[in-house]
Design a protein that fits this description.
The chain is built from 5 helices and 4 strands; from the N terminus they run E-H-E-H-H-H-E-E-H. By secondary structure, the chain is α+β, with helices and mostly antiparallel strands. A 4-stranded mixed beta sheet has the order 2-1-3-4, with helices on both faces. A hairpin with a 5-residue loop joins strand 3 and strand 4. It starts with a strand and ends with a helix.
Length: about 120
């Protein structure tokens, strides 16, 4: 399993702490330094079962500069959202765990981290 983190994020640190406490095997990806491209974002969205606006941090400065809150949330604008996430990875909600079964979760709670663990234990 892989976890996308920003080390400055308390939710990311909590998720790592729980993974370590459970003895989970995982790879850390500092996604601000190793930013995902558009194709990778599309793949993770598919694994999450979410749309790009569902994982966008709209309160970030870059989101405000882009006016993301006013962007339509519809199929026709999906690529525009994905391009913004690839261009500004800080806009991506975190942490995201990609589980070994091909799924993924936005792991902002202990329950979500445990869900990823259970999917990877199968």
């Amino acid at each position: 399993m892989e976890i996308w983190i920003n080390p400055a994020c308390s939710k990311c640190r909590s998720a790592i702490k729980l993974l370590d406490a459970e003895g989970a095997g995982y790879t850390v990806r500092r996604y601000l330094e190793d930013a995902p491209g558009q194709d990778e974002i599309r793949a993770v969205l598919g694994r999450l079962g979410l749309e790009p606006w569902d994982i966008t941090r709209t309160q970030e400065a870059a989101a405000k500069e882009l006016g993301l809150k006013d962007w339509p949330r519809e199929e026709g604008t999906r690529d525009r959202w994905i391009a913004a996430l690839a261009e500004h990875p800080k806009l991506i909600q975190r942490p995201i765990i990609t589980a070994d079964d091909g799924s993924a979760v936005v792991a902002r709670t202990d329950e979500a981290v445990r869900e990823a663990l259970s999917r990877s234990a199968r």
